[in-house]
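Obj: model holo form, ligand = FE2/S2 (inorganic) cluster.
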Amino acid sequence: MNPTETLQLRVRSITWEADGILSYELRAEPPLKELPVFDAGAHIDLHLPNGLIRSYSLLNRSDERHRYVIGVNKDPQSRGGSRYLHETLRPGDILTVSAPRNNFPLEEGAPLSVFIAGGIGITPIFGMIQRLRTLGRPWRLHYAARTRKQAAFIDALQAMDGRDGAEVHVAYDREAGGKMLDIPAIAADLPGNAHIYCCGPVPMLDAFEAATQALPPARVHREYFAAREAAATEGGFVVELARSKRSLEVPSGKTILDCLLSDGIEPPYSCQEGVCGTCEVRVLDGVPDHRDLVLSEAERATNQRMMICCSGAKSRKLVLDL
Ligand code: FES
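Output (holo structure tokens):
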């Protein structure tokens, strides 16, 4: 499947997982027998009937070909994505879904994988843990939630504690006598050659980035659900589209993606916040002003790729492979 193709999937079931969190099992409809493969850590984009496109991590086992399962937190600040899924979508409905993409891959051969999850950030990590269990590889989880009732998959995870060397540590910060995860201590205690992963709210990820700064980047993995900085809308540069041989002026107040869409060009995109990677484009010339949370520092420095939903230009001209 190419990135612009979509699947029509049936909502087979909706399950309560915790206060405010539902999981959705999506199945292939005949004649489609098997879904596109995915690796642990991957996400899919849902194209909702209200026009929104939203990304959700796959949490089921990556060797399953008959279904995708996602978990959705009902966000009180919802701009219509999680609210639609919680309040309108019903079992039996058909959803338009992209093929899986993976910005948060699991290093399956690591001698130890240490996970830090905050709230709904448990979803990709739950999929990774299932993969490591299948492979018989060791792992540790540090899971933060406000309360036990808000901790999705907590019973399943606690049942894994101590099995095959796995460790599950839980911190509830809004319970009586509760505590926060000590992320600097977790990072400082990381055994040599272990890989460390974090997915959760922005303050948790900021603490994670600070605590893991001294570690080799190849052993540190994180996934953001929301933007950390504003999109580049300063404008004042030209975008040349090498394949379609067109050129656009990006004015102040607009992103590159805004300008492409208003010119009738429809590149793939989803979150519009620089977190999902769907809008990634090859840069053939010029210097992007990177504002996404998908590319690593090393990838940013090469200036070979950029996310056009949020990143702008430091040069007067950008030439894109579009
Ligand atoms: S649309 Fe998600 S990173 Fe650009």
